[in-house]
UniProtKB/TrEMBL annotation, chains A, B:
SMART domains, A to Z: HTH_LACI (SM00354)
Organism: Salipaludibacillus keqinensis
PROSITE patterns (alphabetical): HTH_LACI_2
Highest taxon in the source lineage: Bacteria
Keywords, alphabetical: DNA-binding, Transcription, Transcription regulation
Annotated coiled-coil segments of the chain: none
Residue ranges occupied by any HTH lacI-type domain in the UniProt entry: 2-56
GO MF annotation, one: transcription cis-regulatory region binding
Pfam families documented for this protein: LacI (PF00356), Peripla_BP_3 (PF13377)
Name of the protein in question: LacI family transcriptional regulator
DNA sequence: CTGAAAGCGCTTACAG
DNA sequence: CTGAAAGCGCTTACAG
């Protein structure tokens, strides 16, 4: 691979001038600029990224940490981020924590090693105490997940409201026995969602037995599993609010297999409004999360923070959520 | 951020020795090693990635080029790659070509800029002539898509066989009027699949009218569109072989909306065996592609090529495909 | 086992 | 408008 020196030698100019041409610096004689451009072309010269990074102290690379790329929620989020990053001239490093704390921490080290200019946390396995030390090495923002104590910018949805409207919808449909399948309480996002759920129940004087709460479930198989557990109960709920469309889809599919009619015998509400919610039969009533918008805004904010080094005042953007009614309720 | 010099100063040793400790070099006095380790700990020292890259001429980063991350096929492929990359100590840069030739070429430049050690092409928009010049700057391999003329390693599935067995299955079910929805002929993968399709037809003396061929379709919306076009035909096919489960799902959903019974009035075969194939009703008969295996093997091969600089002899791995029968046929 | 020195390939004051 | 020189932070022969 040709270096800047070779281009300089070929043109009889100095590396400094070649560098100026590469970087579109003004004050370069036009005929010389042309000569350099041509030499670069002929040599197939491309500036060495590592040298530029070392010298310029920036990488034009951003890392995004997610917990499971095969979850359509995350793939849509990442899709939006990748698009904006590309437009702004940044590369995207995909980091999958696979719900593991240590792996998340290892990915955060990229910032200390100056391997990335910033990190977007779309999943959050560690407490703010563990994340905080990294924030002095560069911008770190939350997108989607969040921690109430965290002193960092965040773009997220109003999860409590989402939990509330989904539950309210079920109650309005006449349900009084409503089960809940969400994530762990240590995750603020799922905790808030549950708080909204409980708030709706409370407003209507409803309670729920311990066994109707299913913590920490994520995929289709988990949904199937949940249905079986519900089906085996003496006192069954007539509706369930699931923490994701994949879980909801699993519940519905398994219900069909056991000839349990949805929504007549069991109404189901999902979360996300993934493509699958509209494809399966019955369609899943769900809470739409604006993944594209969230990914776009997060990446725009990150690039903005990188470019305007001055610490952006700790920003918070909360996006609206809305109910999409289909046939599962 | 602390540098190696500061660690050296703090311990009273030379940068050379500190470097040796960082790199687990033998021949370092044990007590000195401990001192260095402690100083690094206290200073929160992490080696600067750019400096190491520049000096060592390697980046420990690999780029994967796909065409649409929200396609579950690609997200599963990328998931497998990310896992192996992490295990082997590599970062993964996600590059989405969005089916655009120029964007693909721009991503290949990463290799010339020495910003990555190698590139895995899981999507292929350009001809071999356009790709070839990049191969002298580092390992480039194909995974999934391929070009018959390409002189580079490839891990792929036997697409022709896939097209053949899917069609054969429909013929065995008694169909003689079979439509086909695949990608463009300029893509070798889809061309081979079509060749397999046509081979099966030919073996049974079947032909198909021009209007039963739907080129270049990818997503759910395209599937819906295709169904409508079929539905409007005077002489309708009784079965269709779609180039992906998303397209098949779109066809099935739209068929339901028009009260066209699947498989009785229209049998549908998909491709990939994505989760959705098992979730929608009727389940999609499809050709299973081993995405996890393909992604894993591709990343293993890439790391192997990077580590053993000697040009690996142009390798070719063809993975088996198999029919998964569900209710859509 | 240890360290001084060179150099990876750039960019940026600085001086002209 | 142009160039010589320094330096970003490492690692690796080389010499001891």
């Amino acid at each position: 691979m040709a270096t800047i020196k070779e281009v300089a030698a070929k043109t009889g100019l100095s590396p400094t001038t070649v560098s100026r041409v590469i970087n579109n610096h003004p004050y370069v004689d036009d005929s010389k600029r042309k000569k350099v451009l041509q030499a670069m072309q002929e040599l197939g010269y491309v500036p060495n990224s590592s040298a530029r990074r070392l010298r310029g102290q920036k990488t034009n690379t951003i890392a995004v940490i997610i917990s499971r790329i095969v979850n359509p929620f995350f793939s849509h989020l990442v899709d939006a981020m990748e698009r904006i990053a590309g437009e702004k001239g940044y590369q995207l490093i995909l980091c999958d924590s696979r719900l593991n704390k240590d792996r998340e921490l290892a990915h955060l080290e990229l910032l200390k090693a100056k391997q990335v200019d910033g990190i977007i946390l779309a999943s959050l396995q560690n407490d703010w105490e563990a994340i905080e030390p990294f924030t002095k090495y560069g911008p770190v923002i939350c997108c989607n997940e969040y921690d109430i104590k965290a002193q960092m910018p965040v773009i997220r949805c109003d999860q409590q409201y989402g939990g509330y409207i989904g539950t309210k919808h079920l109650i309005e449909k006449g349900h009084t026995k409503i089960a809940y399948a969400g994530g762990a309480d240590r995750i603020q996002l799922t905790l808030d969602r549950k708080t909204g759920f409980l708030k709706a129940l409370k407003e209507h004087g409803l309670t729920l037995p311990e066994e109707w709460m299913f913590p920490s479930f994520y995929g289709i198989e988990d949904g199937k599993n949940i249905f079986q557990r519900i089906y085996a109960m003496e006192d069954r709920p007539t509706a369930i609010f699931a923490g994701g469309d994949e879980v909801a889809a699993g519940i519905i599919q398994e219900a069909k297999r056991f000839h349990c009619r949805v929504p007549d015998e069991l109404a189901v509400v999902g979360f996300d409004n993934q493509p699958i919610a509209d494809l399966i039969d019955p369609g899943i009533t769900t809470i739409e999360q604006p993944m594209k918008l969230m990914g776009t805004r997060a990446m725009e904010m990150m690039v903005d923070m990188i470019k305007n080094k001055k610490k952006v005042t700790y920003k918070k953007e909360i996006l609206p959520l809305q109910l999409v009614v289909r046939q599962s309720t």
